């Protein structure tokens, strides 16, 4: 599993699936909706969330804390964890419409929005979700290229003993990553990606633990804790830059905590109660957020303690660490493998959404609907579709070209976090909970929930503004397709 990556049955998102797609089974093997019994528990749900949340966002946390300082940095991280936990508990109640034990199940985030809010808000939710997934595709292309360059640069530094600046261009690495994704994107659906998802999960923990270990080792080697109470000081950067970078740091932290849009789908794996799935998910969310926050605190704080105000934007590619170079290489290979899988796990829902809707509009088109089987010796025949080949290839090419135009890891991560945090983590869960529980308008609880939503909207807008300002600032010194690092 990967950052925001544990997805289940996306191809039926917001659509009903006929029961004949499931093999005949005894009634004792079926749940109340006629589908095979869910077997998930508190422990499996917790592990899904933890492995989904801990991803590439962890690499920017040291930089984020450096912008905020030793007091505000950890405090903001804790606040994000508290808000994420609270809104996730609200969202858990929206898995079923009506009775928490026997009400109609909502299989996806959009299903929950449609059941509880309906109308125009469903379309808004879809746009936000899929724009966010599109942005993740761009961000992962940038991150993979940066890691590939870091491998080559670390070996270059090692062989030249630091005398060669080792400048290189990122374009070839982005193109290579895009070519790999074009091939992998032809895998028809999410269910056939299970092996890639598991591999990505292992890689995610590998590079995160390496980053943490290197941070601890550097603090011990320095024999002191670097950093300051207020973070990067004005003078080193301008006051305006300080404000924008502080806002951008909020987006980076938000990105690290974003998993709400997969919570409903994780909940759909939990076995029927009592206790209700909502109660099980609340407990799973609590332990998951505690574990994740503890891990993030270690990575972010040890990273900042190692490098102080000069903490790199990406802990493993910013070259705060040079040795052991082979361990840096292993970590960056793990990042690349993780991102190869993460790109597919994130984009498959978008692929499926477009293909399902296109098929509904043109049900008689062979170009869109006809499947060809390509025999593969020793394996099952590969299903080939012309529309899938062309549209998914175009999608990957677009994300690759945009990544080549805007190869700025921190800015892109901050913007993605800002775009997704308020609507998906706060607004929709709050509004669905209000509708589900029929909370009276202008009651004390209604006012408190709306104030929370408004405060988080301001945070998202600030983070988006800071990230956009960072992109504009970086673009001034960047020549597309030419600049070397």
From TrEMBL:
InterPro entries: AA_transpt_TM. Keywords: Amino-acid transport, Auxin signaling pathway, Cell membrane, Membrane, Symport, Transmembrane, Transmembrane helix, Transport. One of its GO terms (cellular component) is plasma membrane. Residues 1-15 have a biased composition (Basic and acidic residues). Residues 38-472 form the Amino acid transporter transmembrane domain. GO terms for molecular function: symporter activity. It is found in: Cell membrane; Endomembrane system. GO terms for biological process: amino acid transport; auxin-activated signaling pathway. The chain crosses the membrane at residues 42-65, 71-95, 130-151, 193-216, 284-305, 325-346, 389-406, 412-430, 451-472. Residues 1-35 are annotated as: Disordered. The keyword Membrane applies. It is a multi-pass membrane protein. Pfam families: Aa_trans (PF01490). Belongs to the amino acid/polyamine transporter 2 family. Amino acid/auxin permease (AAAP) (TC 2.A.18.1) subfamily. Carrier protein involved in proton-driven auxin influx. Mediates the formation of auxin gradient from developing leaves (site of auxin biosynthesis) to tips by contributing to the loading of auxin in vascular tissues and facilitating acropetal (base to tip) auxin transport within inner tissues of the root apex, and basipetal (tip to base) auxin transport within outer tissues of the root apex. May be involved in lateral roots and nodules formation. This is Amino acid transporter transmembrane domain-containing protein. It comes from Lupinus angustifolius (Narrow-leaved blue lupine).
